[in-house]
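Hello forum,

I keep getting stuck at the same step: I have a sequence, I want structure tokens, and every attempt I make locally crashes halfway through. Rather than fight my setup again tonight, could one of you with a working pipeline run this one for me? It's a single chain of 505 residues.
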Amino acid sequence: MHTSRPTSALPATEARSLVRLAVTGLLAMSAACSNELVTDISPASPTSATRSVSGGGSSFVVNVSNDTTSQNETPLAVNPANPQNLITGANDWNWNDGCAVNASFDGGRTWTKTLPNGFIPGISKYTNDPAVAGTGPYDYGGDPAVAFAPDGTAYFACFGYQAASPHGVALLLSRSTDGGRTWTAGGTGAPLALVTNFNGNGKARGSTGQFPDHETIHVAADGTIYVTWAQFTGSSSHSPVYVATSTNGGLSFSAPVAVTSGSIRNDQDQRIVTDPRSGTAYLTFDNSVQGGKGTAMFVSVSNDRGATWSSPVRFGTFQNPVCLFPPSCFNIAGGQFRGPGSYPVPAFDPTRKRLYVAYTDITGGFGQVFLTSADVSQLGSWTTPQVVSPAPADRINVEMSIEPGSGRIDLMANDRSWSGNTLFDITYFGSADGGATWSTRRVTKTSWDPSQYGVPSGSTVRPFIGDYDGIVSLPSSVGMAWTGPGKTYGSLPTNLEIWFGSVTP
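Reply #2:
Ran it on my machine without issues. Output:
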């Protein structure tokens, strides 16, 4: 979820930006069809038995968005029908106030432009030209999620938010059949598919914090589209995870199915992966249990394409989850900024028939990356969590994927170990032996301080790097997308960019 507008926007938009800033700031506190294509665009205590070895190989890093105003939260997907084709998304603080999209057709070396048309149409009322209206009905959009189907169709999910009463929220899906160059046009002639909607009736604004949040998308080998999100219900004692599915290429979705760990607070941070052979779907999420965020982690299983889900199994607990939500909480070193907390990231390994989960947790005074796994036939029995390549520095915001042919595990994280625990870099971690040993690579070329950059917030800047990054695994390379600083335009450092890096494991 994101707020505010570019500092270069016209004064006439000030009211719109201020309303959006107030509404989404309050909402975030409780969290921690036609397809005409136009527009370019708790186990035992964790251990640290794994060892770290330095790695080599070629790599490159490029600025994807390369514009003048911030983007953050950068999911990444690769086209199985053409591995040179990738797409990434982002919250976009440009004039469109929606979800940014960029596509590459050369393995990530070059990308379609962010300005003027690098956004998903059909969501917000705006484009990046103040004189041209958008094709969507919403005041702003956010929480990007991207995926490819086996046939090469690209999908982009994004929330649309209504700033005024009744504070409605819609979860929308756009399609692209040309690798991400063009997307569903939006408007009455070519509307985006509706996944779900929420009518706040005035309750979505304020401390009760009733709203849907942080959807993710996954497309199975049989083409089934899974979209999952958290439905925060404010002061109630029960905030479930929901899943909706599509079996007709994203033209329509099933009624949402609730998945819950019980009558306790705030199931959230949900993600789905599937076994490409059996089609079994695995949903992981965390829950605050007795308050706070991310105390315990759960897994639920579906064998009928998401129609029903098993009772969730608790497979792990956090010692001291990372919480970067100032002024409410900030429990790592350095200047404060809004960023990702601890959450479980699943990946399925078809070579070992295991479900792996990576997460971050604070141990020994530092945020560290942990890994645990289970044979899918015994999801009640998980390995003791291992610290991945331990370091005396904070490593947060882990993302994971597994190369299906070899079972190679690929991880990325924001990492302070290259600068004496002072500045951020992106680090790649790779394991070819199921997590027993790891190679580590610094991906970024320059370190940075996330407390010194941010997104537009009225007449100032709010340090906010987003809640998630993106990673994809290929047989001979690993692609990663993240938020990092770009060139400053004007007096405020409000130009966070989407960056992409590729490494050879």
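Confidence is low (pLDDT under 50) at residues 1-54. If your local run keeps crashing, start a new thread with the error log.
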